[in-house]
Every structure is written in structure tokens, then in C-alpha cells.
Design goal:
The complex is a heterodimer of chains A (224) and B (390). Chain A is an alpha/beta fold and 224 residues long. Chain A contains seven helices and ten strands. The longest helix of chain A has 16 residues. Chain B has 13 helices and twelve strands. The chains are: A alpha/beta (224), B alpha+beta (390).
């Protein structure tokens, strides 16, 4: 499904170069549940940004469904993010001025789905995370767990082939953490491809495959 | 992304910061209403001046004789000869002098003008009650008068003067009519005078010569021809001394007036437009702040698939909506302000649809133009950087 070959990423601030990724290769098949674990500063965030098409690699090749997208334009990458990737962030990243319903609706709007279809899909996505009755609430009126479930609904509403979860439980209490992990595990059982980025070993152990990153390189990979 | 949704988002952004948005709009509101009020004032003034010039009669040429040597007037017959000239539709000679008019215990000093029946059409000034001077009155030197409204107000104290006897310099005259109220134009009030048959005036004032007369041309195209013919005749009469008479052409006056007021409109409109521009800079300022404030939002939108164009449209539309709303409120304020000026201060104002459309369009253009830079800045943010922003 995605295939990264020898990815490097170099940040330049003035004359100082910083190598965040030093040649990382990774293959994720359809239906995989993969976790990427590493301490802060390990380069895992950079790696996740590149996988998520939020950033482009300095060098290397990135095949998304067999197409090399490492040289894609910003607009083309925006389209991939919109159609192929569902993001779940640590801090939920919901738009505070919009209701839960409108937040979930947003990816469909950018995709150009017409109103009737859009509303049907949003309703279904919110029902799937059990929050349809809260559809008119603003994010600030919801608990952390509920907010993350809205964010998951937003990630799923467009039915993307890849789901990218960046510390999805990092800001949650243990009960909400369990709920959110259950939803993610459930998605995996239904056939979604999931990449989970975390620094928490316990969370990472939920995945079938676990990759450890340190100093910009993969140094360990184990299967469940 | 459909327009309805973009509009909805723009409105949401605006409502979220009511006070700030209102203050931003204020610049546009003041700009637009200033344009409308100032231009309305200028156009109103133009209109009232034009009307008062036209009220003196249409296609009018005024001739004043100052004379040369002992020859200081034209005779009645000499004046009437002008009516035979091509393009002339009417001629009205005036013999005038100052008299004291008295009714009961009230008296006033006023100008007495001897005219004939042509005066009514040539000067476009007829009676509101009673009758005008007739040819028979001129023929029989009838001692009748027609009063201007100010004369009536001054000495008749609300009594209907028609049919009453008026003492002029001790001689009895019968009032047969009252002139329509005209207001003042160049050369003073049109309502503070007394009209009498020209033959009566000639005898009464002991002056047979005509110093003033009015010529009406058949159409505005013929005004110039008539004017030139008149000039040629007068030059001949006064032996090429062009200081001995003055010819005053109403349409020339009108076009001069037009130039002056056009410049005035442009100048006032221009000043107001500058304030609109300043309002636009205010919009740019706020939108820049807004972009910085909403960096995170832009990052989120980009992460879930918003393209550059989507972000650009969102911010452009927001500033267009701010300036558009400001424009609408400004138009209402402008209309309200100009009618208030008319009602309270009595100034003439005239609002044209054109200026409403222009000022609204200009405010929209200002909004889009000054929204361009902030919107472009927002659309160019990198999603990674924007997401990291707190």
C-alpha cells in the first residue's frame, strides 16, 4: 500500500544542517496495523509528517499505492491527504468555531461532495463513534474523549485507505484511552490500514507490527 | 468547494469576532457614507442652482444697455424690432425704477417694472391669483399693478391684495394680480417687485427708454444665433462700442455652472474616496492579524485536504464580506445622513443610483484588493508549520 525507500530529511536553519531522517525504508501492506515508537527527537514526527504527505522528503522515494509521490506538488499532496489519508492527532485539532457535525463535514467539503451525500456520510460517521446526539456541540463543549471520537469520525468520513494516528491517546484519561484504542482496533478488524505513532510502549503493543525509531533510523522491528 | 459553504464559513469567522469586525467595517462604512453624502450635496447644489437659472425662463438672453454718451437707452420700438429676427420666439422689454408703495399705514421701497404681456412667457413668471398684464392695459396705460409675493407679505399683512388700491409715490394703482413665488436667483429676489404696463411705467417714471430687455430663442440651438444677431444690431446702434451693452446668455451660464459643480463633485468624491481607501488598509491590517491568529486553523484545514485555492478563497471572501456589509451599511448611513441634512439643515441633496452602485462596488474592490495580501499569505502557509503553531 505504501512503500518508502531510503527517505532522508534534512532541516536547514541558517548554515546549520540537521539530519532528522537518515535513510529510512518502510513497507506497509493493505490491512496492516503498524506502530512507530520512539522517544521525542527520534525523528518519528518527521517520519509521520512525510508518511502523511504533510511534508516532503529531502531525498528518497515514496510510493503511495504504487505511485511515486515524493515529487508531487503541494496541491497534489493536498488531494492525497484529502482522499487517501485520515488523520487522528494527539491534540484532536478540531476547529473550535465549528460544531462537531461541521468538523466532520469539512474533508467532504474540500473534496466537493454535494450537500445531500455529505450529510448522509457525516451522520453515519458520527453514529459510528456514538456521538450523533452531540452533533451540534462545539468541541469545547465536549470531553477530551468525545473530541477525539469526533476527530476519528472526521478521519473516517471520507473512507480513506490509510489512517494515520499521531499519539491519539496522548491527551486522554485512561478510560477514554481505552475507548479510542477500541475504536482503532475495531477499524483494523474491519480491514483499515493503520499507522500509529506513539512514544508509549503499551499503546504501541496494540499493533501487529512495531517499529522503533531512534536518531533518525529504524533500529528495531518486531511482530506481535 | 461550493460557494454557499465558503460564504457560511466567512460569516462564521466574522461573527466570531463581532467587535473587531465592526470596527474594521467602520472604516468602510464611514468611507462609503462620506462618498454618498458629499456627492449628494454637490449634486443637490448643482440641481438647485440649475433650476434657479432655468426658472428665469428657458433659452433666455438678457440684454442690459449701459449706453454711450447721451444715448443710454433703446426706444420701445427699437427693442420690439428684435422680435422680427430669425430664431426669436418672444421679446420682453422692461422699463424700471424705484418707487415707494403704500397700503394703509404700511409702505415699502420697491422696484417698479414696466412690462408688456410677453413678460409672462419670456420670463416664465405668471400670476398665482388675479390676472397678468394684457395688451389692452398697455394700450390704455391702465394704472394697474401685479405684486411680487414679498411685497404682498410686507404691506398687506395677510389681506388678499387683488382688487385693492395701492399708493405708488402718491398715485393710486389697482392691484389685479399676485405673481407666483419664485425665490431668488442671480441678481436678487424675483419676488420683491411690482409689475405694471410698460406704457404706464414710461409715463409714470418719466423715462421712455428701455434699459433692459429679454429675448427668448425658439430653441436652445438657436440661442447662439439670436445672441450673435443681437450683438451685431447693438454694435451698429452704438457705433461699435461694445462697452455700451451687456448680453447675458443663460445657457452659457448653465454650462459654466456645470463645469464648476462637476469639479466640485469630483473633488468632494475624491476626498471621500481617500477615506474609503484608509478603510481598506484597516481591513488589510485586521486580516493580517486574523491570519496569524488562525494559523493553526489553516494548518488543520490543509492537513485534511484544503488546497491553496481553498484557503485563499476563504480569506478573500471574508474580507469581501466585511467590506460588502460595510458598503451596505455605509449606503444606508449615507442615504439617512443626506436626508437628515436636507430635513435639519435645509441643504439640497440628490442621491443618484449611479453613485450608490459606484461606492458599493468601490468598497468591494477595496475589500478584495486589501484582502489579497493576507489571503495569499494564509494560503502559502506550510501545513506542518501551521499545525505546530499554538
Amino acid at each position: 500500500m505504501i512503500n518508502l525507500k531510503d527517505i532522508t530529511k534534512i532541516y536547514k536553519t541558517g548554515k546549520i544542517e540537521f539530519k532528522a531522517l537518515k535513510g529510512v525504508s518502510l513497507n506497509v501492506d493493505k490491512g496492516d496495523f503498524l506502530s512507530i515508537i520512539g522517544p521525542s527527537g527520534s525523528g518519528k514526527s518527521t517520519f509521520m509528517n512525510i508518511i502523511g504527505c504533510l511534508d516532503v522528503p529531502t531525498d528518497g522515494e515514496y510510493y503511495f499505492e504504487d505511485t511515486d509521490i515524493s515529487k508531487y506538488s503541494k496541491n497534489a499532496l493536498a488531494e492525497i491527504r484529502n482522499k487517501k489519508i485520515g488523520f487522528i492527532f494527539q491534540k484532536f485539532n478540531l476547529l473550535t468555531k465549528l460544531s462537531a457535525f461541521e468538523n466532520v463535514e469539512l474533508p467532504l467539503i474540500y473534496r466537493g461532495v454535494d450537500t445531500k451525500k455529505r450529510h448522509k456520510k457525516v451522520k453515519k460517521a458520527l453514529e459510528n463513534v456514538g456521538l450523533y446526539k452531540h452533533k451540534d456541540h462545539k468541541p469545547t463543549e465536549l470531553s477530551g474523549g468525545q473530541q477525539q471520537r469526533v476527530a476519528i469520525a472526521r478521519a473516517l468520513v471520507a473512507k480513506p485507505p490509510l489512517i494515520l494516528a499521531d499519539e491519539p491517546t496522548g491527551n486522554l484519561d485512561s478510560k477514554s484511552e481505552e475507548e479510542v484504542m477500541d475504536i482503532i482496533k475495531n477499524l483494523h478488524r474491519k480491514g483499515s490500514t493503520i499507522v500509529l505513532i506513539t512514544h508509549d510502549l503499551e499503546v504501541a503493543k496494540n499493533a501487529d507490527r512495531m517499529i522503533s525509531i531512534k536518531d533518525g533510523m529504524i533500529y528495531d522491528e518486531r511482530m506481535k | 468547494m461550493d460557494v454557499k459553504m465558503v460564504l457560511k464559513l466567512a460569516f462564521k469567522g466574522i461573527i466570531a469576532n463581532k467587535m473587531r469586525t465592526f470596527l474594521t467595517m467602520l472604516g468602510i462604512i464611514i468611507g462609503v457614507s462620506a462618498v454618498i453624502i458629499l456627492v449628494a450635496l454637490a449634486q443637490g447644489t448643482t440641481q438647485s442652482v440649475t433650476e434657479s437659472i432655468e426658472s428665469m425662463g428657458t433659452n433666455l438672453i438678457t440684454v442690459t444697455i449701459t449706453g454711450r454718451g447721451t444715448d443710454t437707452t433703446l426706444s420701445y420700438d427699437e427693442v420690439m424690432k428684435f422680435s422680427e429676427k430669425e430664431g426669436v420666439s418672444g421679446i420682453s422689454p422692461v422699463v424700471s425704477g424705484n418707487v415707494t408703495a403704500k397700503y394703509g399705514n404700511n409702505s415699502t421701497s420697491v422696484s417698479l417694472e414696466g412690462v408688456d404681456s410677453n413678460y409672462e412667457t419670456v420670463r416664465n413668471h405668471s400670476v398665482q391669483t388675479g390676472r397678468f398684464i394684457k395688451n389692452l392695459d398697455v394700450e390704455y396705460r391702465n394704472k394697474i399693478v401685479i405684486l411680487g409675493t414679498e411685497v404682498v407679505d410686507e404691506i398687506f399683512n395677510g389681506i388678499n391684495p387683488v382688487g385693492k388700491d395701492l399708493q405708488i409715490n402718491g398715485t393710486k394703482f389697482k392691484v389685479v394680480g399676485v405673481l407666483e413665488k419664485k425665490g431668488s436667483s442671480m441678481g436678487g429676489s424675483n419676488d420683491e417687485k411690482i409689475l405694471t404696463p410698460i406704457s404706464t411705467a414710461q409715463r409714470f417714471l418719466k423715462s421712455t427708454g428701455v434699459k433692459n430687455f429679454y429675448i427668448q430663442a425658439k430653441s436652445s440651438d438657436e440661442v447662439e444665433i439670436v445672441e450673435n444677431q443681437t450683438e451685431i444690431s447693438l454694435l451698429k446702434k452704438f457705433e461699435n462700442d461694445d462697452d455700451s451693452y451687456r448680453i447675458f446668455n443663460q445657457s452659457e451660464m448653465l454650462s459654466t455652472m456645470d463645469d464648476v459643480t462637476k469639479n466640485m463633485t469630483l473633488m468632494l468624491g475624491g476626498i471621500a474616496a481617500i477615506s474609503l481607501l484608509v478603510g481598506g488598509i484597516g481591513i488589510m491590517n485586521i486580516m493580517l492579524v486574523s491570519v496569524t491568529e488562525r494559523t493553526k486553523e489553516i494548518g488543520i484545514r490543509k492537513a485534511i485536504g484544503a488546497k491553496r485555492k481553498d484557503i485563499l478563497n476563504q480569506f478573500l471572501l471574508e474580507s469581501a464580506v466585511i467590506s460588502g456589509l460595510g458598503g451596505i451599511v455605509g449606503i444606508l448611513t449615507g442615504i439617512g445622513g443626506s436626508s437628515l441634512l436636507t430635513v435639519l439643515v435645509g441643504l439640497n441633496t440628490s442621491i443618484s443610483i449611479t453613485i450608490l452602485i459606484i461606492s458599493f462596488g468601490f468598497s468591494l474592490v477595496v475589500g478584495v484588493f486589501f484582502g489579497m495580501y493576507p489571503a495569499n499569505k494564509a494560503s502559502k502557509l506550510e501545513p506542518v508549520d501551521a499545525l505546530r503553531f499554538e
